[in-house]
Every structure is written in structure tokens, then in C-alpha cells.
């Protein structure tokens, strides 16, 4: 048994995940009533969500407390990359929606969720997350609140003794090791998630929304394979695709099935470590990116809003379209970290065109119908780009300050 485990662990994790993916599909087709298989996926996602808040708190506290004076992090560059990508995603989605207009059948597509009342409410929600009770922030996986407390406690502990700082470091290392153990279970978790997706949701109900899905997924692919690589190239002046594909393979694949940027934080942390990135930087940028780096959400908001606009025959001028791009980028940063969170911001964007809340909520209902694919692709784009831009900023900094070469290829096996 031990020999089998050793051979299994020697196989690349990505290859093992693909094996779990194939097994999930086969089992769903052969034994669709074996509901116990889906439990593996639920347990895997729950384990990631359980360990992620503690990981973020200890890593950030340790990084800030042990930060050496005069050593600069790269957060300013990363935040600029996050904002640029999200805005360009919203702008690209607007352009694609005009090139390939989609009309919706809105009758009967209803839902009872409550959207935010305006951009002020979205921003107010973010501010209240910052001042959340630390225990509640951990329990509710409020990463904005966790980051705020971790930063404050880290700064407060900068003057602590070496023994205290050593305890923080040992604690973060211990939780990181637990994360590595959990991630080793990814092939079985992916198998359960795929099994559940096929047996419960199926794909037959999505056929009537084929064009809408094509526009959404096509736009997200354009961001992932064209826009983001261009941003990386501008900063590194090297072929961006080895890094892009590595991030999509290691981070995007897992995020596609977990459909949660928060649950994918441990996966991204591990990938940053494998890429040799600065721990002081990625321990902050990755959990922050899971909250505000939302290019996929900006695409969803823009495409579905303009689908409603085209359905109702509302005329849209260039200025209004540009405002929509900015609005979708800003509001996307306030999207909740749960599956389908970006859909609740569609009424906010629809209000820009005078579309009533009743009609906008029907569009939200359509979004939930196609959410099996839409939200999976959205989360894959959001989460993989967190690592992509953290790595881009880190490599660019090394090139500028140390004269080190930027890798043309990235090996993760």
C-alpha cells in the first residue's frame, strides 16, 4: 500500500487531477445514482474553505511582523494590474456584446435574491467588511476583514520579540503544510465535483441559452488568452504564454470546479510558492485578489446587462457604454465570494439604462440557469489571474532591480 501511495504522489498533481476529472465523467455515466461519490467533492471544497481563512490570517501576520525595514513589497504594481485587467475585461465585454448582440426570453425567469441598491451600497458593504469583528470575519470567511486584522496585528507585532515572531512563522508554516495535505486530495475532490455537476445539473437545460453562453465564455477566453497575455508582455517583454498556461492549468482548472475564489486561495498560495515568488507579497496579493480582482465578474455583468438592453431595444451611445465598463469593473470588486455572486450586481448595471428592477431580476434568473458553466469559467479566470499578475509584478521587479532574467518557461511538475 505504501509503495502505491509513493508512486501516486510521484505523478504530477495536474495529471492526477485530469485522471480524477475523467473518472468523475465515467462514474456519472455508468453509476449516476451513486450519490456518495459527490460527497468527495463537497468535503474537498469544505476543507479548502475551512483552512483558507486561518492560512491568510497567519501568513499575512507573519509576513508583516517579520518584514525587514527597507525591503519593498510589490503591492502597488499588483493592484494596478488587477484594476487594469478588470476594466479591460468590462470594456471587452461591452465591445463583444455589440458585435454579437444577444436577446433573452425573460418570461418566467425569476428569482428571490436581493441585489444591492446602488454603487454606494456596494462600497459601503466593502467598508463594513473592513471593520468586521475578527472572529466573525474568520467564521464567515470575510477576507477583507481578515486582511485588515492581519495587517493591523502584523504591524503591532513588528516590535515583538524574536520568540513571538518565530511562533508566528511556525504557525503559518504548519497551516501551509496542512494546505499541502488538503491539495493532495484534489484529484478525488475534482472527481466528486464533476460527478455532481453532471448528475445533478446536466447540460440539457443549457442548450436554449447557447448563444449567450458562447458570448460569455468566448469573451472570458479572449481575456484569458489575449488581453491578460498582452498585459503581461507589456511588463515583462517576454513570451507570456508559458506563465499564462501554467496559471490556467494549476489554478484555473481547480477554480473551474470549486466555483469559489476563496476556496482556491490555498491552491494559489501553493502555486506562488512553486513559482518562487516573494512570500511577503503573495501572502497579501492572493487573498486580496480573491476579493477585488474580478475580470470574469466584469464580463458577466456587462454581457448580461447588454443582453437585457438589446432585448428591450434600448439605444446605447459610446459614452454610456464606457460608463458601463467602469461601473462593471468597480462593482465587480464588490461581488461576493460565493458561486453566482456577480449576478446580484446586474440590476445595479441595468439601472444605468433605466431598466426596471423586475426585468433586471429576470436577467439574474437567466444567469442562475446558465450558472453551471458561466460561474465556473468566471471563477477560473478570476482566480488564475491572481497568480498571473502577482508573478508578473514579481518578475518585472526582479528584472528592474536585480537584472535577473525573466523565465521564458515555467515548469511545475
Poorly predicted runs of 5 or more residues: 108-116, 408-413
Shape: globular
User: What does the oligomeric state look like here?
Assistant: single chain
pLDDT averaged over residues: 79
Helical stretch tally: 18
The helical percent reads over 70%
Order of helices and strands: HHHHHHHHHHHHHHHHHH
Strand content: under 5%
Rg computed from alpha carbons, rounded to a whole number of angstroms: 21 Å
Count of β-strands:
0
Instruction: Report, as a whole number of angstroms, the end-to-end distance.
Output: 24 Å
User: Sheet bearing the most strands, described?
Assistant: none
Structural class from helices and strands?
mainly alpha
Summarize this structure as a short list of keywords or feature phrases.
disordered C terminus, mainly alpha, 73% helix, 18 helices, globular, 413 residues
Describe what this molecule looks like in 3D.
The protein has 18 helices and no strands. The protein has 413 residues and is mainly alpha-helical. Keywords: Amino-acid transport, Cell membrane, Membrane, Symport, Transmembrane, Transmembrane helix, Transport. It is found in: Cell membrane; Membrane. InterPro entries: Na-dicarboxylate_symporter, Na:dicarbo_symporter_sf, Ser_Thr_transp_SstT.
Amino acid at each position: 500500500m505504501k509503495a502505491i501511495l509513493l508512486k501516486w504522489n510521484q505523478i504530477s498533481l495536474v495529471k492526477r487531477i485530469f485522471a480524477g476529472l475523467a473518472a468523475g465523467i465515467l462514474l456519472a455515466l455508468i453509476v449516476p445514482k451513486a450519490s456518495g461519490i459527490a460527497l468527495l467533492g463537497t468535503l474537498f471544497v469544505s476543507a479548502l474553505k475551512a483552512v483558507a481563512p486561518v492560512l491568510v490570517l497567519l501568513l499575512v501576520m507573519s509576513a508583516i511582523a517579520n518584514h525587514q525595514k527597507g525591503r519593498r513589497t510589490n503591492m502597488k504594481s499588483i493592484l494596478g494590474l488587477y484594476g487594469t485587467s478588470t476594466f479591460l475585461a468590462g470594456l471587452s465585454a461591452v465591445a463583444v456584446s455589440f458585435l454579437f448582440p444577444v436577446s433573452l426570453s425573460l418570461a418566467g425567469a425569476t428569482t428571490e435574491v436581493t441585489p444591492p441598491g446602488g454603487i454606494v451600497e456596494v462600497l459601503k458593504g466593502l467598508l463594513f467588511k473592513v471593520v468586521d469583528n475578527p472572529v466573525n470575519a474568520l467564521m464567515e470567511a470575510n477576507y477583507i476583514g481578515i486582511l485588515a486584522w492581519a495587517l493591523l496585528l502584523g504591524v503591532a507585532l513588528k516590535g515583538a520579540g524574536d520568540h513571538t515572531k518565530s511562533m508566528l512563522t511556525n504557525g503559518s508554516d504548519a497551516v501551509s503544510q496542512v494546505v499541502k495535505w488538503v491539495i493532495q486530495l484534489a484529484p478525488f475532490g475534482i472527481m466528486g465535483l464533476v460527478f455532481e455537476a453532471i448528475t445533478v445539473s446536466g447540460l440539457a437545460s443549457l442548450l436554449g441559452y447557447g448563444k449567450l453562453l458562447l458570448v460569455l465564455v468566448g469573451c472570458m477566453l479572449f481575456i484569458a488568452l489575449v488581453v491578460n497575455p498582452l498585459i503581461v508582455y507589456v511588463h515583462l517583454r517576454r513570451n507570456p504564454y508559458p506563465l499564462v498556461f501554467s496559471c490556467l492549468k494549476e489554478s484555473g482548472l481547480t477554480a473551474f470546479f470549486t466555483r469559489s475564489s476563496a476556496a482556491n486561495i490555498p491552491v494559489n498560495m501553493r502555486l506562488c510558492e512553486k513559482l518562487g515568488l516573494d512570500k511577503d507579497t503573495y501572502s497579501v496579493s492572493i487573498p486580496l485578489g480573491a476579493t477585488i480582482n474580478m475580470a470574469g465578474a466584469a464580463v458577466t455583468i456587462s454581457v448580461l446587462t447588454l443582453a437585457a438592453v438589446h432585448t428591450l431595444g434600448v439605444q446605447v451611445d459610446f459614452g454610456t457604454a464606457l460608463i458601463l465598463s467602469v461601473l462593471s469593473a468597480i462593482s465587480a470588486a464588490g461581488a461576493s465570494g460565493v458561486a453566482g455572486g456577480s449576478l446580484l450586481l446586474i440590476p445595479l448595471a441595468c439601472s444605468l439604462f433605466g431598466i426596471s428592477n423586475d426585468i433586471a431580476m429576470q436577467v439574474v434568473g437567466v444567469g442562475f440557469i446558465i450558472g453551471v458553466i458561466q460561474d465556473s469559467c468566471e471563477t477560473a479566470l478570476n482566480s488564475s489571474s491572481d497568480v498571473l499578475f502577482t508573478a508578473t509584478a514579481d518578475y518585472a521587479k526582479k528584472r528592474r532591480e536585480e537584472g535577473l532574467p525573466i523565465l521564458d518557461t515555467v515548469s511545475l511538475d
